[in-house]
Amino acid sequence: MTKGFWTNWDEDEVNEMQAELATIEHLEHLKYEVGYLKTLVRDTSTGHIRTAIGVLEDRIKELTPKPQPRRVFEVEVVKRDSYAYTAHRKQFESADEAWKFYDDVLKDPYWLAQEPITIRK
Questions:
Q1: How far apart are CA 16 and CA 12, in angstroms?
Q2: What's the distance, CA 72 to chain centroid?
Q3: Cα(104)–Cα(85) distance, rounded to whole angstroms?
């Protein structure tokens, strides 16, 4: 993994980006081909075209990236009031935001941190 001369990306990152772009381009070509084949379908004698459309649509489904599950970072804290303790649970989109909140809680004597960050999917 060597850094390129003109960029801050290493070779693996560049190769990964090129592969992703090639996949996107391939998907566009497949979708175009399916659209063209659909114009050729007639009532009779085009079963081979319908089969080709089905095969290409399955391939498009295979290549289409699946959405990644969203990660939620939770911080559970307890606030000490004059009469009682109140539990609070906050959710964050990134671990950095959650740790920053957790560090701020530790600085304030009225907040008691229950647990470090837990990740829930």
A1: 6
A2: 12
A3: 18
Q: Is 10 helix (H, G, I), strand (E, B) or coil?
A: strand
Same domain assignment for residues 83 and 54: no
Tell me the pTM: 0.50
- Does 86 lie in the same domain as 50? no
pLDDT digits (tens, 9 = 90+) for 23-72: 889 999 999 999 999 999 999 999 999 999 999 999 999 988 877 666 67
Q: Is 45 helix (H, G, I), strand (E, B) or coil?
A: coil
47-63 and 11-40 helices, crossing angle to 10°:
160
Q: Is residue 55 part of a domain?
A: yes
Whole-angstrom CA distances from 54 to 44, 48, 49, 63, 120 are: 17, 10, 9, 14, 38
Residue 86 shares a structural domain with residue 44: no
Place of tokens 């920053």: 100
